[in-house]
Amino acid sequence: MKRMLSSFVVAGVLALGSSVASLAYAADIAVAKPDAAKGEQLYANGDMARGVLACASCHGAAGNSTIPLNPNLSHQPHEYLVKQLIDFAPQGEGKAPKRGGSNGAPSVMTAFASALTEEDRQNVAYYLAQQALDPKTAATATNEGTMERGQHIWRGGVPDRNVPACAGCHSPNGAGIPANYPRLSGQHPEYIAEQLKLFRSGDRGNNVIMQEIADRMSDSDIAAVADYAAGLR
């Protein structure tokens, strides 16, 4: 009887071990590590057979954009970039993307993001997260007249309108908080300002907190803090 019980126990342990190993193997397949080399290839060259355009044509070499309304993507958090690529695409049949363009129009990114697979998103984002911000093309603060106002909003917010300090989420030097908040240092001020206005209008609906904050900001607040953020390092 003891031998039979021992045999059942051993068999049970082996079966459990086999199941755990199988689950671990399945998890490895499901959450495969992103491939930076594939991400670079797709970013630089696209895949016209699938209608995927080269990201570099708008966002510059290694994610360093030279076009003010096209954001710098270099050294942005991997998880944050993946989320944005998901949010640009329609959220199911008949549903609008969470990130839209001005006045309810589709974002220019919608068609591009919709052509990407989950693997594409992971690979491109992983590649970009490893790229350095190029000091030669990174934006800087240029409006001395609003510098003090921008610094005040960045560091202390606008207390009388319940606007919190930007530094609380995007960090004092604008580096952002990985997975949650993007790096804004060196980002084009025109792009930052445009996004705050899209949050304010509700056209960019993928962050309720930012919608509420932007709704309490004036155009002059937005212009000042966007310019100041660009100059952070």
**Number of helical regions:** 11
Principal-axis shape: globular
Cα-atom radius of gyration: 23 Å
| CATH superfamily annotation of the largest domain | Cytochrome c-like domain
List SSEs in N-to-C order. HHHHHHHHHHH
CATH class of the largest domain: Mainly Alpha
Helicity level: 40-55%
- Total count of domains: 2
Write a structural description:
- The protein is mainly α and 233 residues long.
- It has 2 domains: 36-129, Orthogonal Bundle (Cytochrome Bc1 Complex, Chain D, domain 2); 144-230, Cytochrome c-like domain (Cytochrome Bc1 Complex, Chain D, domain 2, Orthogonal Bundle), CATH 1.10.760.10.
- 51% of the residues lie in helices and 0% in strands.
- It contains 11 helices and no strands.
- The protein has helices spanning 2-30, 36-45, 56-59, 78-88, 109-114, 118-129, 147-156, 167-170, 189-201, 208-215, 219-230.
- Helix 2 packs across helix 6, helix 7 (147-156) crosses helix 11 (219-230) and helix 9 runs antiparallel to helix 11 (219-230).
- The radius of gyration is 23 Å and the shape is globular.
